[in-house]
Design goal:
heterodimer; A: 412 residues; Butyryl-Coa Dehydrogenase, subunit A, domain 1; Butyryl-CoA Dehydrogenase, subunit A, domain 2; four-stranded mixed sheet; four-stranded antiparallel sheet; 12 helices; 10 strands; B: 384 residues; alpha+beta; Butyryl-CoA Dehydrogenase, subunit A, domain 3; 3 domains; 11 helices; globular
């Protein structure tokens, strides 16, 4: 996609590109590059150091004031930086959860000391975070949280269990939604805390998922004590704080790079050209793969579906750009995040499925098999995508949000 | 690059004015009257539209216009789609006015644009033929030179608003070469000439009449060639580009009307003792409808802005928008009928007007599948 740009914009673009070449891991983007095993200590370390470099270069932490360690830049510059980072692809950062959820929540509801203490360390990658929301009996029905906290002087005593916690192993701090009022009605009985994961009474263990990996964990609280000052928002208002967290998370999707509110990132993503987003690689794969001696690319049905995939990529991006305009005008409600989250998750599944169709019998070969395509990455992505339409609010919960909060249909 | 989303203050004003005007001047009772009418054109309404400056909206002031841009024009088209406005605005402005503006000589612009702007000249495009496919090989109506005029013979099909038209822009073959795209010429023909026979098609979308038009030894002066002799094909492609963007604007409004109307009905229709909008299966359908139209609007605004800015991405943007908006408008108008139940299937309910307009707009200038094939071809060419 060709576009005319000012000399300043081009200079910034060159600056980012040069910086990326100098700072990305060796052999990055080449077939020789061997990434660290997912969810390993090595991956965590790489993510942390990468985040630190980005932060020091001024390429992250946007939309947050300098006072709290943010980096203030004009929207046009942010768009260029995000575009260049996405174009080149960068190491995944474990800091992404902090950027996605914690920053938006603390900036929106936190006390000043909390903003000063936590925000800059998230932006710079110094501290990692996880989220204690879901429980065995509180998935889509998040308000049904059973973990309790009972006030004892200046502290709260927490007992219960959380599950499906991303970044559970390396998190220095965690968000936590607990029931603090056993009598109050639903949605008014919860409070929101942050806690240090070295606190006595806290323990964690792995939860193995269908990819065979351990991405998530379970967290257990056995008379764990949290100081009262760690509460975010008011007592009994935890549900509403949690809604902010979830909206940031949903709209951010996989694009944590920008920092700050997730909607801003989605809007930033809206400015990208369509070379990225998997369409090019789908076409290449379909051209290079034969079935009965004929390239799959020749198949009319398949071509139509690739086109549809490209169109929907583009529609999501430009929806993000329109949302950016609405945010600047103050007419966005935040519920739009559900639209972006659902499309990203559903297209991720679709992309995985299309790749499997192309590679045929090879879609059965996982990492470790010498014949596996892309070292098994594609099969992994296809399997992992099943979680995408469940985590951060199932597609069905997000459709409820769209129907009830955007269209105003009655809640049951 | 100045691709802008959303509306500026003066664009909001244009939109509000257009909506008020059409609600007053062309309510559904008027739409239904025009559907019954063989010509489907109200000269009184046309005159009022000329008075508020709609036909000349994008023409420069020197040609009797108001010099607004293409994005402004699509705002007008959205409101016309929302009103399922019958009549020859689309044919006159998008199919003939725009190519005269873009490719006409100064004399042609002087002669025709002010007449279009002030409502004197209703125009249409005669491009498609028997095979119903807009491609160069499909054009076989012939124009033979005789002195300083050309004589046209042959039959055009799916010609919109032919009975209302004062002028027809006719795509005719003036030379047969190995390359079918070479040798097509566009003639602006006086529609009242002897030898032009117009036959109504019994058309599904009665808010947009279409006809068969037979040309038997119809003369047209050589000075009425728009663009160069034999070089009409690129102009037709340009007409298709802008017309498609305008059709997308209509499609978005058509779809948004269907979603609004359906959601409102879901809040009042009671079955099993509760409003049907409280049923989750229906809510999810409504959510999908909303998302389809939000995405359609995003692609349509991008396409309109690209045309306005003469951006190199314009053809890709229009192709993506046309494919997606067509599919989405068909989806939401179909779902709109389904969610209304029996009442949605009646002639009296307006949903079928939108359902049919969605389909005729999707078909016009290449449907969803046509554009998808074009898109993959182009993406492939860009990768290598």
């Amino acid at each position: 996609m060709v576009s005319k740009e000012s000399a300043e914009a081009e200079a910034l673009r060159r600056e980012v590109r040069t910086w990326l070449e100098a700072n990305l891991p060796e052999k990055w983007g080449t077939p020789e590059y061997v990434p660290p095993e997912r969810f390993s200590q090595e991956a965590q370390d790489l993510g942390k150091s990468w985040t630190k470099r980005l932060y020091d270069a001024g390429y992250t932490g946007f939309n947050i004031s300098k006072e709290y360690g943010g980096i203030e830049r004009p929207a046009g510059e942010i768009a260029i930086i995000l575009e260049e980072l996405m174009r080149r692809g960068t190491p995944p950062g474990p800091q992404s959860l902090g950027l996605l959820m914690v920053v938006g929540t603390i900036m929106g509801w936190g006390q000043d000391w909390q903003k000063k203490r936590f925000i800059s360390k998230i932006l710079s990658g110094e501290e990692s975070w996880c989220e204690g929301f879901s429980e065995p009996n509180a998935g889509s029905d998040l308000a049904n949280v059973q973990t309790t906290a009972v006030r004892d002087g200046d502290e709260w005593v927490v007992n219960g269990q959380k599950c499906w916690t991303s970044m559970w192993k390396f998190a220095d701090w965690s968000l936590l939604v607990v029931k603090t009022d056993l009598e109050a009605p639903r949605h008014r009985n919860l409070s929101y805390f942050i806690f240090d994961t070295t606190t006595p009474g806290f323990s964690r263990r792995p939860l193995r998922q269908m990819t065979g990996e351990v991405e998530f964990g379970e967290m257990f609280f056995d008379d764990m004590r949290i100081p009262h000052e760690n509460m975010i928002g008011e007592e009994g208002r935890g549900w509403y704080v949690a809604m902010t967290t979830l909206a940031s998370e949903r709209s951010g999707g996989g694009m944590a790079m920008g920092g700050g509110g997730g909607m801003g990132m989605a809007a930033g993503a809206g400015m990208m050209g369509f070379g990225i987003g998997g369409v090019d690689s789908l076409i290449q794969l379909a051209k290079n793969t034969k079935r009965h001696g004929k390239a799959i690319w020749e198949d009319a049905n398949f071509r139509q579906r690739i086109a549809q995939f490209a169109i929907e990529n583009q529609a999501t991006r430009y929806y993000g750009a329109r949302l950016g305009v609405k945010m600047r005008q103050g007419t966005a409600t935040g519920n739009e995040a559900s639209i972006i989250k659902n499309s990203q998750a559903e297209r991720r599944k679709l992309q995985g499925d299309m790749v499997m169709e192309i590679i045929g019998a090879y879609s059965q070969l996982m990492r470790g098999d010498p014949r596996a395509i892309d070292g098994g990455e594609q099969v992994y992505n296809m399997i992992r995508a099943r979680g995408a339409t469940i985590e951060m609010g199932t597609s069905e919960i997000n459709r409820n949000i769209i129907a009830e909060r955007i269209l105003g249909l009655p809640r049951v | 690059m100045a691709i802008e989303f959303g509306l500026k203050e003066e664009q909001e004003m244009l939109k509000t004015m257009a909506r008020d005007f059409l609600e007053t001047e062309c309510p559904k009772t008027a739409v239904r009257q025009l559907m019954e009418d063989e010509i489907g054109h109200s000269p009184e309404l046309w005159k009022k539209m000329a008075e508020v400056g709609w036909m000349g909206l994008v023409f420069p002031e020197e040609y009797g216009g108001t010099g607004m841009n293409f994005r402004d024009l699509t705002i007008l088209c959205e409101e016309m789609g929302r009103a399922v406005l019958p009549g020859p605005f689309f044919s006159t402005v998008l199919l003939v006015g725009m190519p005269i503006l873009d490719f006409g000589t100064d004399e042609q612009k002087q002669e025709f644009l002010p007449k279009i702007a002030n409502g004197e000249a209703v125009c249409t495009l005669a491009a498609l033929e028997e095979d119903g496919d807009l491609w160069a090989e499909g054009i076989s109506v012939k124009a033979l030179q005789r002195g300083d005029e050309y004589i046209i013979n042959g039959t055009k099909l799916f010609v919109p608003d032919a009975r209302a038209a004062d002028y027809m822009l006719v795509a005719a073959r003036t030379k047969r070469t190995e390359n079918p795209e070479e040798g097509i010429t566009l003639f602006l023909v006086n529609a009242k000439e002897w030898g032009i026979y117009i036959q109504n098609l019994i058309i599904m979308d009665e808010t947009r009449k279409q006809y068969e038009v037979r040309f038997t030894n119809v003369p047209v002066p050589a000075r009425n060639i728009i663009g160069e002799l034999h070089q009409g094909w690129p102009i037709l492609k340009q007409i298709a580009l802008k017309a498609s963007a305008a059709l997308c604007a209509e499609l978005v409004a058509v779809g948004e009307w269907a979603v609004e109307t359906t959601v409102a009905y879901m809040k009042e229709r009671v079955q099993f003792g509760v409003v049907i909008g409280s049923f989750q299966a229906l809510k999810h359908k409504a959510a999908d409808m909303h998302v389809a139209m939000e995405y359609s609007r995003s692609l349509m605004e991008w396409a309109a802005e690209c045309i306005k800015e003469n951006h190199p991405d314009a053809t890709m943007a229009v192709a993506m928008a046309k494919s997606y908006c067509g599919d989405s408008a068909k989806f939401v108008t179909d779902a709109g009928i389904q969610l209304h139940g029996g009442i949605g299937f009646t002639w009296d309910h307006d949903m079928h007007l939108y359902f049919k307009r969605a389909r005729s707009n999707d078909t016009a200038f290449g449907d969803s599948n046509y554009y998808k094939e074009w898109i993959v071809n182009t993406l492939e060419a860009n990768i290598i």
